[in-house]
Design brief:
The complex is a heterodimer. By secondary structure, chain A is mainly alpha-helical. Chain A is built from 20 helices and two strands. Chain A has a two-stranded antiparallel ribbon. The two termini of chain A are 37 Å apart. By secondary structure, chain B is mostly helical. Chain B has one domain (5-134). In chain B, helix 1 (5-27) packs antiparallel against helix 2 (36-54), helix 2 (36-54) packs across helix 3 (56-62) and helix 2 runs parallel beside helix 5. The longest helix of chain B has 32 residues, at 103-134. Classes of the chains: A mainly alpha, B mainly alpha. At the A-B interface, helix 2 of A face helix 4 of B.
Chain lengths: 499, 138
């Protein structure tokens, strides 16, 4: 066992990569799915193992790729933040994958199904790679691996507009990645290093005339990563990408892709630059505060007026990302805890919601709200799960969403910004409107023609959905896994800030 | 191009040398300029030149679509497989130290195999891209 455990960080990337290669040889979707399932179920076990190690015994797992010592070689470095995000991403993949078999067979053209799983595994490898790596350029490579795979995943959507959405995302994503590389180039110019830990050490004794290059690098990197995580004015790629991607891809990406970008942002802001540069010399904090609040309101309003359910939830995702960045902007223990816990909670809730829509797409095939009247009576379990996860999204006490919003509110008060509490509550009320709208149509109207003979999806699709809905409730009471770990991670991040 | 004797004969004369040059670039990657990527592009260039002069249909008799599509993941498998083998030999991923009796030889072997993987993937990808473009609108 110890022979394996020393390789755990790199296995997180190699296993999905090898799985992707194996599925690329295959022609049959079912076979590829089986391989993908094996890989996906191995990942969270190893991730949990790493998380446990990081939290209890040694806080940083370092792995030398190719045996070359950092900072010269590439180092894989799993800290508390990384282990937490890796756990979320691999867990979401493992939980949703049983759903994929029937959903993908239904939505993706037959000759593309094996490729679809290849792309899914590549995406998984890239996302886990970003969280696991301690090398700035390696992070860029993984960013590209996951993004390129994501473009393909989106373009395989059942509607022709999926191609356009994928192209739109490709342009935006490439701009984001380019900005990130320019920033890394600037940092390399100043410090001569690509290793995150090494850069942060060398930035400590940077002279004043190097400051301009450092600030420029930070501006480029933060903007580039913000594009990837869909921070408010840079979110325009997200609604279409989520709306037209195949159901499974949407559910997986909504829970993971933006979260990993947030992990990268946190690492760069807190571990590399440190608060001294990030929050004092540049108005990053105020910028994030304003943009987060704008995201919470503008995107929520957009969701209220959206007719396509998938697009509605996509806009809601932008709003929820606003909560996460809000906590980052507060940069205190409670705010950070809320923000990190919301990464987990939002992943659970939003994945559940998108899975419910995937089940509707499987049985009914339409996404327009007015065609779905009475769906609640025809697909009771699916819609029940939708409602539970929706309640979580509003932040009703007793659900996961309440926990993260509670911590955010406490963080706002701690930071002396009490009005923010009202804004958090007010924006949650908008969530009540857009989720309530769906509930009204789904339960209080006569079933429409489109869903007259709909029924709950097969068990393999229903089970992941119900599991996540149950988790929404469970995480509302037992917060050890979310807020407990999140507060540990926040402490580690903010501890790096005080130095 | 059916009647263009000069082009057809010229191409046939050049082709073996293109392949030879690709192999030269591949083998000498660790001493001079070159390596798997460049060699892969040159090797794919050979197929593409043949396809331009003699037609895609005949090019596919030399490098069938299915083979080309298998080459793409195969190269990655060679690369990643090397890393996994090095893990089974008791060192880190892609650490070649245990491939031979001494460090220098071990690294030469490791890089050689890895570059071979790059050659296979790049040649396959380039050819597949050319096939995909040449078939548009059919």
């Amino acid at each position: 066992m110890s022979a394996v455990s020393s390789h755990l960080p790199v296995l997180q990337v190699i296993l999905p990569l090898l799985g992707a290669v194996l599925t690329a040889f295959m022609r049959r979707g079912q076979l590829a799915w089986s391989v993908t399932l094996i890989v996906s179920w191995m990942l969270p076990v190893m991730a949990a193992n790493m998380l446990l190690q990081v939290l209890t015994s040694d806080p940083i797992l370092s792995y030398r790729l190719g045996g070359w010592a950092p900072p010269y070689g590439i180092e894989y470095r799993v800290d508390k933040l990384g282990a937490f995000v890796i756990f979320i991403v691999s867990l979401m993949g493992a939980v949703t994958l049983p759903f994929a078999r029937k959903s993908v067979a239904h939505e993706v053209a037959e000759h593309n199904q094996a490729w679809y799983y290849t792309m899914y595994l590549l995406c998984q490898a890239g996302l886990l790679g970003i969280a696991v790596t301690g090398d700035a350029f390696n992070a860029f490579v993984f960013l590209e691996v996951s993004s390129l795979a994501t473009y393909v995943l989106i373009s395989m959507g059942p509607h022709r507009r999926a191609l356009l959405a994928a192209y739109q995302y490709l342009i935006m994503g490439t701009i984001g990645a380019t900005l990130y590389v320019i920033g890394i180039g600037g940092l390399y110019l100043v410090t001569g290093s690509l290793n995150f830990a090494d850069i942060s050490m060398r930035l400590g004794d940077a002279s004043d005339d190097q400051m301009r290059a450092i600030l420029m690098s930070m501006a480029f990197i933060v903007t580039g990563v913000s594009l990837k995580l869909a921070l408010f004015p840079l979110h325009v790629w997200l609604p279409n990408a989520y709306a037209y991607a195949p159901s499974f891809a949407t559910a997986f990406l909504a829970g993971t892709a933006t979260k990993v970008a947030i992990c990268l942002l946190l690492r760069i802001l807190f571990s590399v630059f440190g608060a001294a540069i990030a929050f004092k010399t540049l108005p990053v904090q105020h910028l994030f505060l304003v943009l987060s609040v704008a995201a919470m309101f503008v995107a929520s309003f957009a969701a209220v007026f959206e007719q396509n359910l998938k697009r509605m939830l996509a806009y809601s995702s932008v709003a929820q990302i606003g909560y996460i960045t809000l906590g980052i902007a507060l940069a205190n223990q409670a705010g950070m805890t809320g923000s990190l816990a919301h990464i987990f909670n939002h992943a659970v809730m939003k994945t559940a919601l998108f899975l419910a829509l995937g089940a509707i797409a499987y049985r009914v095939g339409v996404m327009r709200l007015r065609d779905l009247s009475g769906i609640g009576r025809k697909m009771p379990l699916t819609m029940a799960a939708f409602v539970v996860a929706g309640l979580g999204l509003m932040g009703v006490p007793g659900t996961a969403g309440f926990i993260s919003k509670w911590y955010l509110a406490v963080g706002a008060i701690d930071a002396g910004m009490t009005p923010l509490v009202f804004l958090i509550v007010a924006s949650s009320l908008i969530a009540v409107v857009y989720i309530g709208r769906v509930i009204e149509v789904a339960y209080f109207r006569e079933p429409s023609v489109a869903c007259s003979d709909a029924k709950d999806p097969p068990l393999s699709m229903l089970l992941p959905l119900l599991l996540l809905a149950a988790a929404t409730i469970y995480l509302g009471f037992d917060t050890r896994l979310t807020a407990g770990i999140a507060s540990d991670v926040a402490e580690a991040l903010l501890g790096g800030l005080k130095q | 191009m059916k009647f263009d004797v000069i082009l057809r004969v010229g191409t046939k004369l050049i082709l073996p040398f293109v392949l030879l040059f690709a192999l030269y670039v591949q083998m000498h990657g660790d001493y001079g300029p070159g390596g798997g990527f460049q060699a892969g592009v040159i090797a794919a260039g050979m197929i593409i030149l043949y396809a331009i002069i003699f037609g895609v249909r005949r090019a596919k008799e030399i490098a069938p679509q299915r083979v080309v599509e298998i080459m793409i993941p195969l190269g990655v498998l060679i690369y990643a497989g090397t890393g996994v083998v090095s893990m089974f030999l008791g060192s880190n991923f892609l650490d070649y130290s245990h491939f031979a009796h001494d460090q220098l030889h071990a690294h030469e072997w490791g890089i050689f195999i890895v570059e071979l993987g790059v050659l296979v993937t790049v040649a396959g990808t380039m050819t597949a891209m050319f096939y995909a473009f040449s078939e548009r609108g059919r």
